[in-house]
Design goal:
Number of strands: 10
Structural class: alpha/beta
Organism: Leptonychotes weddellii
Helix content: 40-55%
Distance between the termini: 41 Å
GO cellular component, one term: nucleus
Number of domains: 2
Largest sheet: 6 strands, mixed
Pfam family, one: ERCC4
Keywords: DNA damage, DNA recombination, DNA repair, Endonuclease, Hydrolase, Nuclease, Nucleus
Family: Belongs to the EME1/MMS4 family.
Strand content: 5-15%
């Protein structure tokens, strides 16, 4: 069992998982001078990339291989292929033409640009330099008075930002299509690398979610404390639980555990208090053992209040630490 756990940990390790991810870059993207920035970023990331024709054109596609050998205890759905790991790069003019068509012909008969009806996948979209393109294609007042001018004809596809934002909302809500707007290839490369890392870590997240209680440690171990069948070790867990509160030193936790060796004993003490104020201050004056030559101290009212609320409140939204 221990050997199998080590195999699972090795197979799901982020460094290993990243080596099994490959980015497939459409060869048409290399016509853009900025594509070198993307390829250099992928090389620095340490994952594989392949330049080959993709469908649709000017797109990136991610693939992930299973580890060999594949641990038997990992469910098969952890390694399931992802259906929407496709990023389609669009020129600003092409994107504006598409959303202009979409906003003008919206309705049941409207087909969403960039989505192939025969395909079951919807690509994510990326547009580089849309802001700069819109700024440079706004017609001047003189050109507005000459509707037949070539400049205005070119600017016909340049929509205003409010119209673009309206189209982005429409694409997301109606067509379930995400659009990434970036200013440069450098920014696009950062997004591609971040997405590649997240994709590499996806099997680990799926494996963790597939376990019924992923936050529990298997066997007799809990928080690195061995608990015997007679209860030996529970006191250490209680000490660690107190240490999880903000601004609690080992000495303070030791003072509380010494006075109340278990949470149940502390809860019983709270029930015996006659007032709420007495409960909140129950631990405040407990002495804390400090090192030789150091000033004596006590647990204090703030931590006393937090621990009391933690063990007695029925409000799940209650904020325990007012200083956070």
């Amino acid at each position: 069992a221990a050997e199998e756990r080590r195999a699972v940990a090795e197979a799901l390790r982020p460094e290993q998982a990243l080596r099994r991810v490959a980015v497939r870059v459409d060869a048409a993207l290399l016509e853009d001078a900025g594509a070198d920035i993307l390829l250099e970023a992928l090389r620095a990331l340490g994952c594989e990339y392949h330049v080959e024709p993709q469908r649709p054109a000017r797109s990136l596609r991610w693939t992930r291989a299973k580890p060999d050998p594949c641990p038997r205890t990992v469910p098969s759905e952890v390694w399931a292929a992802d259906e929407q790991d496709v990023l389609l790069l669009l020129e600003p003019e092409e994107f504006l033409q598409g959303i202009q068509q979409l906003t003008q012909t919206r309705g049941p008969s409207c087909s969403v640009p960039w989505i192939c009806p025969e395909s079951s996948t919807s690509p994510h979209l990326a547009v580089i330099g849309l802001d700069a393109y819109l700024g440079s294609h706004q017609p001047s007042s003189q050109e507005m008075r000459q509707p037949e001018s070539t400049s205005v004809a070119r600017a016909a596809v340049a929509l205003s930002w409010p119209k673009v934002e309206e189209a982005l909302v429409l694409l997301q809500l109606w067509a379930h299509l995400d659009v990434l707007l970036v200013a440069s290839w450098q920014e696009l490369s950062q997004h591609v690398c971040a997405f590649t890392k997240a994709l590499a870590q996806r099997p680990f997240r799926r494996y963790r979610e597939s376990r019924a209680f992923s936050f529990c440690v298997a066997g007799r171990w809990a928080a690195s404390e061995r608990v015997a069948s007679d209860g030996t070790g529970l006191r250490g867990i209680w000490w660690r639980q107190i240490r999880q509160f903000h601004r609690v030193s080992p000495a303070v936790a030791h003072a509380i555990v010494t006075a109340f060796p278990s949470p149940r004993l502390l809860q019983q003490a709270y029930r015996s208090c006659s007032t709420e104020q007495e409960r909140l201050a129950l631990l405040a004056d407990l002495p804390v053992k400090m090192g030789e030559g150091m000033r004596p101290r006590r647990v204090g009212p703030d931590l006393s209040r937090r621990i009391c609320l933690f063990l007695t409140t029925t409000n799940p939204e209650l904020l325990l630490d007012l200083g956070s």
